[in-house]
Amino acid sequence: MSDTAAIEAKLKADQPRHVDILKRFVAIPSVSTDPAYRQGVADAAAFVAGRLREAGMGEVAIHPTDGHPVVTASWRGAPGAPTVLVYGHYDVQPPDPAEAWRSPPFAAEIRDGRLYARGASDDKGPMLIPIAVAEAFMQADGRLPVNMVFLFEGEEEVSSAHLEPFVAAHRDLLKADFTLSADGAQWRADLPSVTVASRGICALEVTVRGPGKDLHSGRHGGAVANPIQVLARLMAGLHDDAGAVAVRGFYDGLDPVSEAEVAAIAAIPFDEAAYLKEVGAPEGAGEAGYTLLQRNWIRPTLEFNGVHGGYTGAGKKTVIPKEASAKITCRLVPGQDPARIVDLLARHLEAAAPPGVRVSVKRETGGAPAYAIPADHPGLALSEDVLEGVLGRRPVRVRMGATIPIGDIFKRVLGIDTVFFSFATVDEDYHAPNEFFRLSSYQAGMIAWARYLARLGERRG
Amino acid sequence: MSDTAAIEAKLKADQPRHVDILKRFVAIPSVSTDPAYRQGVADAAAFVAGRLREAGMGEVAIHPTDGHPVVTASWRGAPGAPTVLVYGHYDVQPPDPAEAWRSPPFAAEIRDGRLYARGASDDKGPMLIPIAVAEAFMQADGRLPVNMVFLFEGEEEVSSAHLEPFVAAHRDLLKADFTLSADGAQWRADLPSVTVASRGICALEVTVRGPGKDLHSGRHGGAVANPIQVLARLMAGLHDDAGAVAVRGFYDGLDPVSEAEVAAIAAIPFDEAAYLKEVGAPEGAGEAGYTLLQRNWIRPTLEFNGVHGGYTGAGKKTVIPKEASAKITCRLVPGQDPARIVDLLARHLEAAAPPGVRVSVKRETGGAPAYAIPADHPGLALSEDVLEGVLGRRPVRVRMGATIPIGDIFKRVLGIDTVFFSFATVDEDYHAPNEFFRLSSYQAGMIAWARYLARLGERRG
Question: Residue B1 above 50 pLDDT?
């Protein structure tokens, strides 16, 4: 085993500088879903490229795509050693609802050892870790223990919409033995874990249009269809009374889950009451007949992410609005094709339109199927060994209800698997107000990445 | 019959001045439902008081209430002549959605003989008419043909929430033979009509709260209840498949509608296709078993005026929101008490709450029951005679799907009925973007009010 003591000491000593870098990074509002933030996304890409250059990586490039740019860099000076493709993303979720933030979302504030800002945990803090570690190796040794390729995208929060064609067009640049992902938060702050599977995603937006303009709800109420009422009925019809998705074909062709997998999930220490308390929910809910972890990890879901129609300001406005709409995403499990599911839902909704309204469905592109790493992947075992050493406890293997589309993309296009090696944790309120990243995780992540790369470097071909 | 030719000529000659007064009036943003416009409401009250003073009315007063002020004035110099209580309101609906206006909502713009602005038709244009007519009589004759009391409120758009206690506390000031309302738009632009009944209203807002904060819909989807999903099911459950309200007791105790009334409605010339084309609805919709006019005039409804939850900006945000809410109003018919209906709905919604969420209902105050004027009221017959003379066609008697709470309030508290004598028409997009008032109606209304008052003055007791 390489002695990484010097590297680790250097990384610890440099923490103030790395915190400062993260502060500057999160100050860039790189919201990928909203065109209003286009410049922020471009600025963040430039920031990442600058950090890779500072770290001494070669071939640093910002690649335009049909969406937001991809930033790559590489160092291939260790012939015979393995090559890892490091993945992360520099885009972030929208800051809404802005008024719920204790401190501004795009200005870092440290409270109780946590750095609060949009993107701090997902994924700006975690993705800076491998860059910092590579920089430390270069500064200390003038070389890295393994060959490394870096790929940071700006569209993870919009389902990595343009990543697949980019990867397909840059197979040589991205050639590696496996992916080591800085994204893919750890399951819990109190239990070391490695993530071995993620659900897929697909998205659509349904709009119900009734009258040609907003109408007075007294003058016209009873005469014409109310788009909100129709939308509510359409939405309500998407689940049955037992919480299952009530769209024909939704569950068709699911890959069977083995008894061993079910038993493994059941064996994971999980305090349901503590979880519900943490998220502030009075009770669990969802598809009947499954445990909470099963519903969250190995069952597909259909979630309403937003609904809007009519007057939503203070007081009341007696209006029949001309339209109402809802944003929907599904989380998918192995066997479900995103495009097929979107199509099923769209046809179901369009067919359910009653007289008096027009129903239209916007099929969002960029869905992703579910992904799982083979249980015997050596990069996975190494991550478990390193985490045990750094965190003092053997990690459990967990699944992820969320989606990281790259697992599927790298497998299909490059033929390589993805090991999730992130130091975010799921309680850090990413995708919500007051997102934060634990500074202790920032440092522990650097130690762990240094050890991982060093131990991987011992495995020469 | 009095010769009002001189008064009419004066009113016609003064039209440019009256249009200018209306322009200044609509420039005051007197949105009663939104506290942000509080100053605008106060400014509008002051404007009305100023106009009443200019018109030569006495005892002009701005009365504070627990909500927005009431403006009154009177002239009682015709002993033995009837006394009319003139009603109107100076508050307006919110301008939302602002982006749908062709010209700014609070700056009048005249296009094709129509004055566009929020409140132009409801009710600022119509309520200026009786003031202009009284002014013309005072300037020409130094007196009015009848005794007049003016009451202009600032809370009509919020169900006249504080009007009843005001009226109860000012019975002497408001003593009159009947109310002549400048509010209560005519049914159609192409068919003279008098309104003989209006539906009541009650309002509530239902909020579904799930997790304590917005959650990532992948990380938590399937584990906890989604408030939007629960809200949609609650909303969908409020109507049955035939479009009737599915809340036990909602239809209890309705006053029977006579066969004669049903026949009268059926006899009214009404082109359903033309109506639907005008409002831009592909088809009619609503409670099965009733005609469109029956559904709109003599059947109660439950309408969703607004719904909101989660992310509604551009693109998508994969969130399970912590809450979602909907604004609801019901239009009521004779026999339905607003407070009882709100209570029924609130208890129904609260009882329907599934595990995993909390459902709360905000019971809005200030509902109003339905109202109808006796068919043989002499003030009603006079309005028909005058309209026939001014518009060249005998008006039909129609009902109104909307609510003017004063009908019920004046009847119960003062014991007097209300004749609706408004010159707005229902197609003028009040409660919607691009509200307008026909300048031809502004002038015709002044002629009609002058003739009405003159003929009423001939009826000395």
Answer: no
